[in-house]
Predict the structure.
Amino acid sequence: MNLMIIRITLRALLGRRRALLLLPIPVLLIGLTGFATTTGVAVERWAPILLNGMGLGVLLPLTALIVGSSVLGLEIEDGTITHILTKPLPRRDIIVSKLLVAWLVTTVAAGVPLGVAGAIADGATMGTALFVGAAVGALAYSALFLALSVVTRRPVIIGMSYILIWENLLGTYVDGTKVLSVRQFSSTITDTIAGNPLLQSTLSVTTAAVMAGVFVLLGTVSATHRLRSFSLAGDTN
Amino acid sequence: MTLIESESLEKRYGGGTLALADLTVSIEPGVVGLVGANGAGKSTLIKLALGLIAPTAGRIRVLGLDPLTDVEQVRSQVGYMPEHDCLPPDMTAAEFVTHMGRMSGLPAATARERASETLRHVGLYEERYRAIGGYSTGMKQRVKLAQALVHDPELLLLDEPTNGLDPEGRQAMLGLVQRIGTEFGISVVVCSHLLGEIERICTSLVAIEGGRLLRSDSLSAMTQHKGVLAVEVDERVDELVARLAAAGLEVREQGRELLVRFDDDKTYDVIRDAVVDLDLSLHRLEQRRHQVADLFRDPVAGSEVGDVQHA
Amino acid sequence: MSSTPEGVIHDIGYQRYQGQRLGRRYAMWSLYVHSLRTAFGLGRGFKAKLLPWTLTAAAGIAGLVIMVVGTQTGFQLVGYVDLVANLTYVAIILLAVVAPELVSRDLGSNVMPLYLARPLSGTDYALSKLAALISSVALTLGPAMVIMFAGNAFATKDGMTGVLDHAGQFGQGMAAVVIHSVVLAALALPLASLSGRRIFASTLVLALFLVTAPIAEGLAEFSDNPEVVGMITPANLLQGVDNWLLEGTNHPVGVWGPMHGVVTLLLTCAAVGLLLLRYRKVSA
């Protein structure tokens, strides 16, 4: 872990106007949740849709995608990665620092609103549960997308396909895929902590926790490994 | 035909910045230097000439046409080389220039041919089949020039063509520009803030300062008048100054030299006689050619002048 | 005056060009073709081709499977028009990848001044790009329709009537392809043009389609008219239009049909208007 890298990355990520892009969806989510509670419709009917569908299914993965793939990916894309690579820093430190920043930003940008929405919907326990579930999901997603941005040339496409096809499409119909779906990890952990199956998750908590850990580990290791052998041939997409 | 002609041209930007004010100039064919400090209004003039922005007052004509109403015609006869980075990194130079040629109206096969030739003319050979992303600054500048030339324009607008080049690269680019202007028969307007380079290749000059016209003239005209003689002796300088002044010459000390305003050959004689009479050793007596930089300051008085210089 | 640069040779001298100069239309056409080629990765190596061709293949395979099942068992899983609706996911992924390739790259590399110094205007540029994007989606979804039609036409047991019947459905399917392509592309391109970085542009496009789905679902729980609320989602909107204008779909919207049509039209026009506005203001 390296403080300098953390600081630089944070500044680069949040210092631009485009950081505002992270705002609309959380605001929308909280607004809709608030609206939903006023309608008197039972929580069980809309919570899965808003909190799971929009929150864990869209807000969290998309935020993690933007943040996770740009935290190192932008530097790789425009070649400025050389600045970091020429410093005597262990590659692992670089990756871990970047991962930390990605996780932090995603958790704040997506996890906090989710926690707030959860609290509005069903009380403080739900709020905390959602926050923790989202935080775990954020870590797993960040590791995944960070690794993709180093190992592949088009992390956004692959990440997108993962979210759209694997998690959303197949995940709804094919049970087997749920083991590898970060969204399921998040919802499982949330439901477990909240003590009620509001989000209709189906994995066991142990599976979820373990698999999330696997994602993080694999992601970090493969990213570090690939970064070590990074050649800067100046080739372009 | 006049290349660019403007009458009381004014451009005021939204925030109130006055980029060009009351600019009346007539630029004749040849290799024209458009000089001025950064922010003096050169780029604005170019954008107005291309019809990319509209004047807030006055009018401008390019090759006799209005760049706002005859947009297509003007742009098909003009080539533009911007100052900043503007090349896509993942196309090859050949592909890119061909594509730009087609964008300018050349049929497909012609575009390919001319792209090939133009790239050769600017000095890119085998490299043109490699992706632009891997090019050096010099090569990129050449590609920019090639895309401006590919459709055989009547007029080339080059904005700081030597930007980012090392001294050798600058020489090469200037030489290229000069060849374009003289051998290819295309008129060129070169924007630059580097006066020394401009002097070397241009046939006429338009100097802009603070959005206003400072001077517009052919280079020979500008460098002919107001010569200055530099005189260097190693002692009793004051006596020499007094002697020359008494003889009616305008003298100013600058460091170890005396600058004497020089109107005709008689000045040489006066100086020579004075030096001989005072029994001084003359180290140097040479004519300082009037430099473009002097447009921006009075060479003998030595102060910055913002007004139009009188011959 | 200055030294001749080394290594710059010209053998035959510079040739002036006296030939024809085609105008704006030709430039727009050239840009359209160039963009379409970029979209499908032609002339750019394997990786650039991977995604668009895979998506087209996936769509085609879906059409193939449905056709085979239909001709072998007589049971048609999904109709022509409904297939197009189901392929919206495919279209979205294509848009999220191709739209940034078409516009974000040019914005990011600052090449716009070079385009604008040419006889075509900013809006011409935008229209050419939009046409290319629409065509990309259509070319991805179209083959599925063709495969279905070809297979069914060959295997039909009703002779000419059967073929004509399928031809009619094929026509409906192609109409759906056109409508979907136009609307989806019109929505995606202005979004992508907001950023010069492909990563952000992709995510913006994706976000539009992803976010609207759960919102629509959620609001449907609170509203008495789920079809109206569903119009928030482009996918539902398009399904509604399909149902209203075309035959052979399974998602009836009944009386709300015309409203879907009007909203779609307005939305598309607004999106295209925003796109043109954005490119009118791009300057050197």
About this structure: The first helix of chain C runs from residue 24 to 39. The two ends of chain C are 33 Å apart (CA to CA). The interface with chain A takes residues 47-48, 51, 89, 92-93, 96-97, 195, 197-200, 202-204, 206-207, 210-211, 213-215, 217-219, 221-222 of chain C (CB under 8 Å).
